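Section 4.2 – Deliverable D4.2 (structural model, holo form)

The reporting period included a commitment to supply a predicted holo structure for the target in complex with guanosine-5'-triphosphate. Inputs used:
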Amino acid sequence: MTFTPAIQWYPGHIAKAERQLKEQLKNVDVVFEVLDARIPLSSQHPQVKEWINTKPRLLLLNRMDMIPSDLYTPWQKWFESQGERVYFTNAKAGKGVKEIIKAAKQFGEGVNERRRDRGMMPRPVRAVVIGLPNVGKSALINRLVGKKAVKSARRAGVTRQLQWVRLSDDIELLDAPGVIPWRLENQGDAVRLAICEDIGEASYDNHRVAAALVDLLQELDFSEVLSSRYGLEVGANTGEEYLYTLAHQRYQGDLERVAVLFLNDFRKGVLGAIPLEFPPYVD
Ligand SMILES: Nc1nc2c(ncn2[C@@H]2O[C@H](COP(=O)(O)OP(=O)(O)OP(=O)(O)O)[C@@H](O)[C@H]2O)c(=O)[nH]1
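Output (structure tokens):
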């Protein structure tokens, strides 16, 4: 038996967020798009390319600490095969940040060459960090700026107003990240985004999302992390049955409590570095 999490989205908010994002994109030369390294495919928005148009974009696979390091090269190769450049970051610890600044400078040189060709004065390259809610945009901006300029929190949706920050003589950054709203037509993506908490104004049943995570861990051959953490094998159980049994064995049948505990364990990395997506096979 499979369960479809009841994920709801609010169209008015999505339209407003899209307008704000497009406005931010209009003002910059380079775009840093933050993806979740655990789900690099689901955390991409299909329309971003169209919105950015010809502007250079760097894909940042953030939360690199939450996947095994032997996946870095395969992902890099896969994205290269798609014509994309990716960088791995751990925005919390500040890993991979210098490389991004270097790459932005290179793009800036290109921008200024084109300006010079048109008889215009060179100026610092303007950049913006964009991504789905809670993927680590603010943490990354803090690292790029080098001080706690932007509030970063574990809860989705804390990002505030727009301002430029000078990173160096060559780079200016919008201190407010661009939040990408997600129209979730694809329920598979929706479930993975909900599991990783990379969602904004959405609501869902914790126990259904948690059950889907159990199913996914089993499908991806990670079910032993469950038995070692909770002392209960998944065996032939569905995710829903597993959580139900766990709730009755340990938590007086409190399914919601088990679901929240389990989702938090996954989201905080307590269960280990567990990727939920792998690079697709290419010939
Ligand atoms: N383990 C780990 N945690 C991270 C990383 N980057 C960010 N985080 C954590 O993820 C959570 C969300 O980070 P934020 O920077 O607030 O995310 P955001 O994308 O700005 O979120 P919104 O403002 O809601 O759009 C925080 O608890 C961060 O500490 C990372 O690379 N690794």
